[in-house]
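Work through this:
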Amino acid sequence: MSDETPLIELAAVSVQFGRDPVLDDVSVTVRPGQIVTVIGPNGAGKTTLLRVALGLQKPSGGAVIRQESLRLGYMPQRLTIDDTMPLTVRRFLALTKNGTGQDRSSVIEQLGIGSLLRHPVQHISGGEMQRVLLARAILRRPNLLVLDEPAQSLDVGGQAEFYTLIGEIRDRLNCGVLLVSHDLHLVMAAADNVVCLNHHICCRGKPQDVQRDPAYLALFPGQQPVTGLAVYEHAHDHAHTAGGDIVPVAGEAEEQTVA
């Protein structure tokens, strides 16, 4: 975690639609090199919080303070592209107009999407699309990477790999990461700080502390704290594509670890 000047600070932010409060007195800070994960139940205001951070939603109260010349990279939860549009993955990435050809080649290699470049964007799998969207976001060389449910299309093995990749990107770019997820244990293990949101902040802190907080346990009953690495039995009857999707193969069960 860095103690540098914050990249972005949401200070006592409130958002209200009509009479319904969506966010109430919410404060979140992200610094360079820091991964801040926002968790909470459906309808808790997580996506609204991201929209405020991105400048797409004006808060009803409070303030949003952004570092001067802040460069944002955003990965949406999903992106729908008309089937009639002739758009390959290569062309989709080129639409960003950010970075040199060498930069694009480096990002494509890092995310393992080279084999997808000639494919129509509409025909790649959900997991592959997640990697393409992440590539597009980091081509901006962002100071702050904003991710909305980035691993939702992946199985548990693909999720663990994806969050490891996000950590590597953070280290390489020294960017801050503001991330929303429902993956709980997996995503919390990858975070420096966790914010538990349900319209207001129920609890916050290091992952190991949040997992034991009564407010977290009340929101997610039945969750058990995880210490270190969570070990699970993985029936290895499939492989993973570059996008983390499942491809059936013959094999034997093996034990793997998930950070």
